[in-house]
UniProtKB/TrEMBL annotation:
Residues 10-338 form the Enoyl reductase (ER) domain. The lineage of its organism: Bacteria, Bacillati, Actinomycetota, Actinomycetes, Propionibacteriales. It comes from the Bacteria. GO terms for molecular function: oxidoreductase activity; zinc ion binding. Keywords: Metal-binding, Oxidoreductase, Zinc. Its cofactor is Zn(2+). InterPro entries: ADH-like_C, ADH-like_N, ADH_Zn_CS, ER, GroES-like_sf, NAD(P)-bd_dom_sf, Zn_alcohol_dh. It comes from Kribbella amoyensis. Belongs to the zinc-containing alcohol dehydrogenase family. This is Alcohol dehydrogenase.
Length: 340
């Protein structure tokens, strides 16, 4: 099969022929019909993830058809249209038994723990726990964008952040995660402020439901406090930067909630005294379990959520190395989907 292969961290990958992954017991082999290009893939390529062993094939947002079924897998057949969370949980540990698959200590992530979906085929473990059947009306392109960015934002906003109608929610960073969060928070009835450096991204945020936008680089905190009448109820860092975290925390009103979704490979500094004195909540959110998908899929089916509108570009495998390299300069507006 053809795949995007990383030979060195930070070194431009190549597209070449490699062996098709084998199907392990309990798993399936999926022919990749669409896969998303995510900033997490860039972090992995840069060497920010200790689980990655070179040579490596990135890619963790995917949708496709089952090409082979491993020993012991029941309830799934060749040819079925499927997607999966980027966190493939074991299904048997203490956290999984409690329903918290997204923090399974024995999880495997395609594109990180093993070769991922920037390829014509990808192997998925623990199939009975992690596979999700695609509704007939859901395209492969849309489904590919759900597995990481949209599902992560849905759980962060809906479940972890507990966003309510009429709350002031500020989203920092309008890439795929941030724009997904804007759409989801707006659909829940929140007043959404989007912050980004890219005017095109801010225009998309307004199209997806943001009430106001703020150009990063201005006095962001003062602008947010003015727009929210004193401070946000919820802030979310969808980018992952120490400077963004500081602005987000300073933008909160007392007893506000901060959602950290963007990765922070260089660490972060926190004013713990302010966290205590203002009774602020720092909330981490990491993906969403397969069993939690039905609520999100129902909202997609009835038109409340419109993830297909987030897709702004489709590319081929041959275009992936350059697109990955371009993320070094910043996250482009919208979602990029790859057709292997």
């Amino acid at each position: 099969m053809r795949a995007v292969v990383v030979e060195g961290f930070g070194v431009l990958p190549s597209v070449r022929e490699v062996a098709v992954p084998r199907v392990a017991a309990g798993g399936v082999l999926v022919r990749v019909e669409a896969t998303g290009l995510c900033r997490s893939d860039w972090h992995g390529w840069q060497g920010h993830d200790s689980d990655i062993v070179l040579p490596h094939v990135p890619g963790h947002e995917l949708a496709g058809t089952i090409a082979a079924v491993g020993e012991g897998v029941t309830g799934w057949e060749i040819g079925e249209r499927v997607t999966t969370p980027f966190i493939c949980a074991c299904g048997t540990c203490e956290q999984c038994r409690a329903g918290n698959h997204q923090v399974c200590p024995d999880q495997l992530q395609p594109g990180f723990n093993y070769w991922g979906s920037f390829a014509e085929y990808v192997a998925l473990p623990f199939a009975e726990v992690n596979l999700i059947r695609l509704p007939d009306g859901l395209s492969f392109d849309t489904a590919a964008g759900l597995g990481c960015r949209f599902a992560t934002s849905f759980r962060a906003i809906r479940q972890v952040g507990r966003v309510q109608a009429d709350e002031n929610v500020v989203i920092f960073g309008c890439g795929g995660v941030g724009l997904s969060a804007v759409m989801i928070a707006a659909a829940l009835g929140a007043r959404v402020v989007a912050v980004d450096t890219n005017p095109e991204a801010l225009a998309l945020a307004r199209a997806y439901g943001a009430t106001d936008t703020v150009q990063a680089g201005t006095d962001v905190v003062a602008a947010i406090k003015d727009l929210t009448n004193g401070g946000a109820d919820v802030t979310m860092d969808a980018l992952g930067a120490n400077s963004v975290v500081q602005q987000a925390l300073l933008s909160l009103r007392p007893r506000g909630r901060h959602l950290q979704v963007g990765l922070l490979p260089s660490g972060v500094q926190l004013d713990v005294s302010r966290l205590i004195g203002q009774e602020l909540e720092w909330l981490g959110s990491h993906g969403m379990a397969a069993h939690a998908y039905p609520e999100m899929l129902d909202l997609v089916a009835d038109g409340t959520l419109r993830p297909a509108e987030l897709i702004t570009r489709t590319i081929t495998l041959d275009e992936v190395p350059a697109a990955l390299d371009a993320l070094t300069a910043g996250t482009p507006a919208g979602v990029t989907v790859i057709h292997p």
